[in-house]
Amino acid sequence: MIYSFNGIVPVVHVSAFVHPQAAVTGNVIIGRNVYVGPGAAIRGDWGQIVIEDNCNVQENCTVHMFPGTTVRLREMAHIGHGAIIHGATIGRNVLVGMNTVIMDRVEVGDESIIGALSFIKADEVIPPRSLVVGNPHKIIRQVSDEMLAWKTEGTHIYMQMPADLHRTLQPCEPLREVPADRTVQQPSYQTWAERKADR
């Protein structure tokens, strides 16, 4: 669902994938290999939203702002399910955890990881490579090289999704019973806890 607003039409790179059940409105620029999941609302009605190459904005996220603001998700920003980004700048290769809320004029430094359910109040500046958790947020330590590599690996999976979806996603009728030869997806990525346990 792509909508112009006040004569401004969103720009979506041909390699990006915006799910038909997402809503993208107005002054929005979406770069290469971006994934936007179903239920996401990206509202460039009162200001501009720039989503740089290789980002993902997952299911039921909201990206919006107060009037006259630019929201920017820098390259490889990874916005988890249900997160709200309101008037903030998210740095390069940042992970924003599920159901996190990041408020106006926040600047999240590159390569930071924001834990699920965190709240970052307006005007905060999060230094690069910060590991942030809680409501209200706390910076608990620096992101290690190992943790950043884990985050980056997960984002690479999402970077492949637009091409896969363009190639294979199609409406269908459901089956009425499970076929004997049904495909089972093999694990291709570990949670952080699994990764640590295997060390």
Automatic annotation (TrEMBL):
Cross-referenced CDD domains: LbH_paaY_like
Regions crossing the membrane: none
Residue numbers spanned by region Disordered: 180-199
Pfam families xrefs: Hexapep
InterPro entries in the cross-refs: Hexapep (IPR001451), Transf_Hexapept/Carb_Anhydrase (IPR050484), Trimer_LpxA-like_sf (IPR011004)
Protein's name in the database: Carbonic anhydrase
Source organism of this protein record: Solirubrum puertoriconensis
